[in-house]
């Protein structure tokens, strides 16, 4: 029998017609950190961030209850028929840790993260692998992936590319509902319908955040549509690393204070990680600049053609031509400056 998500659970529903085209189906090997967390109130997605820890949303979780975590699955694990997939792993929780800074709206945690400590470590395989968090703030214009399943739908693992907006665009789209300190917002062209909350957002195999409800969805506790919001994990990174004992070699849980002290070796490791993340971001930005350069060159060729065809002795034509040339210079200089900035960050 199929398990149907209870109607009172918050489900973001997007128009069924608008997606189908964008989604790209993949096997669990492509997103081996993808997790599904099933509690008494239903299911939500998450990401494996260590052999023993899964990060997810705090909304709909009850620390006093146990949850079941599904890892390495291709079919939506809330549907019983997929649960015997050979590569899948099903592990119960030992403990749920909810971050203490959250907004309490209608008795729900919103915009908050929870870490699920597994009752035993995962068996690492090509389908089940933890993912690192992006250790620098994500920049607008990035094209990360969203991966996972569709809420309440008999769907297979899939992903889509999206584009991160800047803060101003997010405020324009969501108004005061948008929590700039902890959220990001994005656009998909066309929408994939990957609306299961907790679906991970990743770039070059680094975790940026998790799909989250908008405040409006939480308040009305009913079907809601078109919320393209992400919990930005960057502000939580120190807390997360402390909880999972990352960067701490002698993990002694009996004296938790030791977790607060970072050893020089760990700091160096952390710096290395950040440097590699910055390099990835540089590359992404460089690619964008190259694309811009190409476009600008194409435009220049078009302009040259137009100029060649102009009768250049007429005064207004001369003004237009000189304006176009000025714009062309400006674009060239801008691209040059951008390229220099991105290629020599140490010198600025
Ligand atoms: C959380 O779980 C405990 C134990 O099962 C239960 O007594 C309590 O009512 C639950 N809280 C919520 C908000 O569901
Ligand atoms: C949210 O706030 C209400 C009222 O202050 C309180 O009764 C409730 O326990 C809080 N809920 C959570 C999940 O913390
Ligand atoms: C998105 O996922 C696909 C499939 O795994 C991968 O090829 C691509 O590099 C990913 N894109 C980013 C920006 O991480
Ligand atoms: C950045 O791009 C260069 C050239 O394409 C490549 O050699 C390098 O490995 C890339 N670095 C990262 C961190 O992706
Ligand atoms: C545009 O500016 C560049 C750089 O100054 C120059 O090399 C190029 O000839 C200009 N193109 C036109 C059409 O004026």
Q: What features would you describe in this structure?
A:
- The structure is a single chain.
- This protein is α+β, with helices and mostly antiparallel strands.
- It has a domain at 24-262: Beta Barrel (Thrombin, subunit H).
- It is 28% helix and 23% strand.
- The protein contains five helices and 17 strands.
- The protein has helices spanning 167-174, 215-220, 237-244, 264-309, 315-343; strands at residues 24-25, 34-39, 42-50, 53-57, 68-71, 89-98, 103-105, 108-110, 113-118, 132-133, 145-148, 158-161, 163-164, 183-187, 200-203, 206-212, 229-232.
- The strands form three sheets. Strands 1, 10, 11, 12, 13, 14, 15, 16 and 17 form a nine-stranded mixed sheet that branches.
- A hairpin with a 2-residue loop joins strand 2 and strand 3.
- Helix 4 runs antiparallel to helix 5.
- The longest helix has 46 residues, at 264-309.
- The termini are far apart.
- The relative contact order is 0.14.
- Mean pLDDT is 80; it is low at 1-20 and 248-261.
- Bound molecules: 2-acetamido-2-deoxy-beta-D-glucopyranose (5 copies).
- One 2-acetamido-2-deoxy-beta-D-glucopyranose binds next to helix 4.
Give the oligomeric state of the chains in this entry, treating copies of one chain as homo and distinct chains as hetero: single chain
Total helical elements: 5
CATH class of the domain at 24-262: Mainly Beta
Give the radius of gyration: 24 Å
**What's the main sheet like?**
9 strands, mixed
SSE string, helix = H, strand = E?
EEEEEEEEEEEEEHEEEHEHHH
Q: Identify the CATH architecture of the domain at 24-262.
A: Beta Barrel
Indicate the CATH topology of the domain at 24-262: Thrombin, subunit H
Mean pLDDT: 80
The ligands bound in this entry are: 2-acetamido-2-deoxy-beta-D-glucopyranose
Structural class: alpha+beta
Quote the distance from N terminus to C terminus.
Answer: 62 Å
Query: CATH superfamily of the domain at 24-262, called what?
Result: Trypsin-like serine proteases
Helical content band? 25-40%
* Beta strand count: 17
Strand coverage percent: 15-25%
Low-confidence stretches: 1-20, 248-261
Dominant shape: elongated
